[in-house]
Amino acid sequence: MTASPANAAQSNYWNKTAGLTWAAMQAQLDRQIEPLGARAMEGFAAQPGETVLDIGCGCGQTTLALAERVGGSGGVTGADISQPMLEVARARPAPAGGAKPRFVEIDAQTGDLGEGVFDGAFSRFGVMFFADPAAAFANIGRALKPRGRLTFVCWRPFAENLWMRAPAEAAASLLPAMTPPDPNAPEPYAFSDPVKVWDILEAAGFQAIEIRPFDAVIGGGTLEEATALALRVGPLGVAMREHPHLAAPVAKAVRAALAPHETPRGVLMPAAVWIVRAGWR
Length: 281
Prior knowledge:
- The protein is α/β, with parallel strands linked by helices.
- It contains eleven helices and eight strands.
- Strands 1, 2, 3, 4, 5, 6, 7 and 8 form an eight-stranded mixed beta sheet that branches.
- It is globular.
């Protein structure tokens, strides 16, 4: 199932540009953000035998982790609108002794996720891209059983995320002015304001809402890997797709900005997220 017209732009983005990048760089991106999703998953506390929905599952790392937690008696569905990323997810082996995950191409804002099907819904950076977030979360809520639960992790403001801000700032003088992230548009930092997130969830019908900050250092790749990744994702990635002829000087500047963060465990930089939990009515 493809995305609804309301999310057509996001479908195009995740199938023809960003999704191809994430599919190609799956291992490095999984390593980069795994600690953030792992902390959220601890709070979600999936139990053996439960049925779980993984929203915006991407290349499937979180879906497979949830499948291991619910065990063979449970069930996990990974939902995403990106066919390239779902192809990677479907090719990954299921965990031994875990549930066999089901991956579906569906728009979680408007698609039929079922009624009262899941004990819980989880997402690692997959819920910030809805054209109508309140409608999307209401749709997700309907798929939950009574007193089901929701947990997701989303980015705090761009300014607090040095891992993405530093490369963009290093390249700024070499590129035309980059459009700053729009917190009111479907984009990675759309949920950086916790009051906005709270209001969206409350309007959708969720209750017992908790929004807590979590900080960590992320990365782990070599300096060359970190530089290559910085040139492919986020606002800088968008700019480089528009100005590929500037790749050499931008890469040099970004590499210099990342070099001070190189450690024996690779390039590690601060990341700032919200971990959000809520209960369905």
